[in-house]
Design goal:
The chain is of the alpha/beta class. Helix content is 59%, strand content 9%. The chain has an eight-stranded mixed sheet, sandwiched between helices.
């Protein structure tokens, strides 16, 4: 989402870092470009004005301009102000002990409320909380059916409703069921509209008055930019939001909503939707997002994703195989599937410090390439996977036919695998990293 903004800011700060001494004029010129970059990213005008002024006040101080690395100091100030603008620390849903925590999902139609309700239910269920979904969007029959389908996929119970039924009665019924069934969390998927109107707000206020939700979360489509910010402010004024969930954060929007919504509404962004899959919901960390925007990566999120996909036992087993030189194509296939679980390649690159610049160069890399490689490996016999040296010409033709690929692709995979094993062996020996560095850069 922030790719365009990141590129522009990187050019600005690259020039600052290249200078041994900075003047107030240098800082002013740089901030003028930062201001334009933020406005082009669809950040709220008043938010940009306050942000630039806050950076200017701190950046023109003698402690910065007279330091040995003034450019780096300015970048740090910008990073800290970005974090402050987005809320400083991560905001979580406050779970209530001894009774169900009631979460009311609100927002405009098409923002992704129903899917996000399912994602939240999955998250709570994974955390050991018995969760109930309530189909309170009775104006749209498809929403009821969608929530029932999501419940079946997740193994989560759903309080169903009929099209046209009073949503207040549905929510009351769901809350009563949750109390009787000892549920830990109740998620109420309410109706939306194409725009903010009195009828919608009256209905939502009636639901709030009856069920007294602990959380009122506004689901905003990040692709709509400042329209999402204005809608969030309107909902907050009428309902009193406790937080925001931004959906479609994996899209190619300019990022203005993510950078503005906290400053305009005063409500924290609690989660970010990073894709259509039910596991694609992440806690929103302002410091990590600021680091991504400035090209510093997000190693903590990458580690968390890896820990979810790879168990400690699997990691130790792989390390032992690498040390013994016993890393096979079977192990390679397992690793590929685990990498695929982490998410799209361009997202992973953005989390590695300094690697964001490769995203543009790898824009044409198809994530389905992993599927083709796995198909090739699946077409091999177990004996071939354990010992690639026995794969002769006729075997390569058979493997290509079985995987629906070309012999050249099979050859390329085998060559890449051989090079990977060579690097792994080098790294596993004492002083291996040093020898590898000399081989690559010496």
């Amino acid at each position: 989402m922030f790719e365009s903004l990141s590129e522009k800011l990187e050019k600005v700060f690259k020039r600052l870092k290249g200078r041994g001494v900075l003047t107030e004029a240098d800082v002013s010129d740089a901030l003028r470009e930062v201001r334009m970059a933020l406005l082009e990213a669809d950040v709220n005008f008043k938010v940009v004005k306050d942000f630039v002024e806050a950076v200017r006040v701190k950046a023109v101080g003698s402690g910065v301009l007279e330091s040995l690395t003034p450019g780096q100091q300015v970048v740090k100030i910008v990073h800290d102000e970005l974090v402050r603008m987005m809320g400083e620390s991560a905001a979580r849903i406050q779970l209530v002990p001894n009774r169900p925590t009631v979460v009311m999902m609100v927002g405009l139609q098409g923002s992704g409320k129903t899917t996000t309700s399912g994602k939240l239910a999955r998250m709570f269920r994974k955390g050991g909380r018995k969760t109930l979904l309530v189909a309170a969007d009775t104006q749209r029959p498809a929403a009821i059916d969608q929530l029932i389908t999501l419940g079946k996929q997740l193994g989560v119970e759903v309080e169903e409703s009929r099209p046209g039924e009073d949503p207040v009665a549905v929510c009351e019924r769901g809350l009563d069921r949750a109390r009787r069934g000892a549920f830990g969390v109740v998620i109420m998927d309410t109706a939306g509209r194409l725009h903010v109107d009195d009828a919608l707000m009256d209905q939502l206020q009636a639901v709030r008055a009856k069920v007294s939700p602990d959380e009122i979360l506004f689901v905003a489509d990040a692709m709509t930019g400042q329209d999402a910010v204005k809608a969030a402010a309107a909902f907050d004024g009428m309902l009193g939001l406790t937080g925001v969930i931004l959906t479609k954060m994996d899209g190619d929007a300019r990022g203005g909503a993510a950078l503005s919504i906290r400053a305009v509404t005063g409500r924290p962004i609690k989660f970010a939707g990073m894709g259509e899959k039910l596991d694609a919901l992440e806690p929103f960390y302002p410091d990590r997002v600021a680091s991504r925007i400035l090209g510093m990566g997000d190693v903590l999120s990458l580690i968390e994703k890896a820990e979810e996909s790879v168990s400690l036992e699997e990691a130790k087993d792989l390390e032992a195989k690498v040390r013994q030189g016993d890393f096979s194509l079977e192990d390679f296939r397992v690793q590929l599937m685990q990498v695929k679980k982490l998410g799209p390649l361009d997202q992973l690159l953005g989390m590695i410090p300094g690697m964001g610049k490769l995203k543009g160069a790898m824009a044409n890399v198809d994530d389905r390439e992993v599927d083709r490689i796995v198909a090739i490996i699946n077409s091999m016999t177990s004996k071939e996977r354990r010992n690639v040296n026995i794969i002769n010409g006729s075997r390569r033709k058979r493997i290509a036919r079985g995987s629906g690929t070309q012999v050249q692709e099979v050859n390329r995979l085998l060559k890449q695998f051989a090079e990977t094993r060579k690097i792994m062996k080098m790294l596993s020996r004492p002083g291996g990293k040093l020898r590898l560095g000399r081989g690559l850069f010496g």
